[in-house]
Amino acid sequence: MEPTIFTWTSWMETLCQILHSVIPWSNACETISSPFDIYKNAYFETHMMVNSPEQWIEPMADAGVNLYTFHIEPVKDVCNVCRLVQESGMKVGLAIKPATKVSVEELARYMEVADVVLVMTVEPGFGGQSFMADMMPKVEWLRCNYPNIDIEVDGGVGPKTIECCAKSGANMIVSGTAVVGAPDQRQAITQMREVVQRYLK
């Protein structure tokens, strides 16, 4: 595994990949397409915070998305959505939010088809929320039971909380506000990557 820092900054040369979140507005496809015109070789993830993720699979695949992450809570047939994502040529990411009624152990039924599991460390919504350290047992359980899967954390993650995430087993980091608001964005990204690298086995 390699440490991955997703962010919204312009320091493309320091990033392994880019996260480009998508919400269901009328021009979402145009929105997701625009970064590909600039960053031809970037690796793009869409974090789909939508009720019907299957509706967006084809447009995102056509736009060139590499990793399609969706929340399992509103989905009746998770395996079917995973299959559709795979058939479209994208990797599958499964996301759970803090207040979910789905236990992390219940993810076991989907692990054969998942490439990434995203553990949200804030409730989905606006940036700048406080990091929820009580989500780390979920990350620890996933890393203990699935040592080779990519585990992503998103929400309130920055230089002050990165060690907690990395120590628990996360190797994919989404950081927005903490990086954008940093005096030296490149240094913030590099610092977080180095912390994650220390904990990778």
TrEMBL record:
Enzyme class of the recorded protein, top EC level: isomerase
EC number per UniProt: 5.1.3.1
Pfam families per the UniProt record, alphabetical: Ribul_P_3_epim
Protein name, as recorded: ribulose-phosphate 3-epimerase
InterPro entries: Aldolase_TIM, Ribul_P_3_epim-like, RibuloseP-bd_barrel
Glycoprotein found in the keyword field: no
Keywords carried by this UniProt record: Carbohydrate metabolism, Iron, Isomerase, Manganese, Metal-binding, Zinc
Catalytic activity: D-ribulose 5-phosphate = D-xylulose 5-phosphate
Record's function text: Catalyzes the reversible epimerization of D-ribulose 5-phosphate to D-xylulose 5-phosphate.
Gene from which this protein is expressed: LOC115631575
Organism placement in taxonomy: Eukaryota, Metazoa, Ecdysozoa, Arthropoda, Hexapoda
Cofactor(s) of this protein: Fe(2+); Mn(2+); Zn(2+)
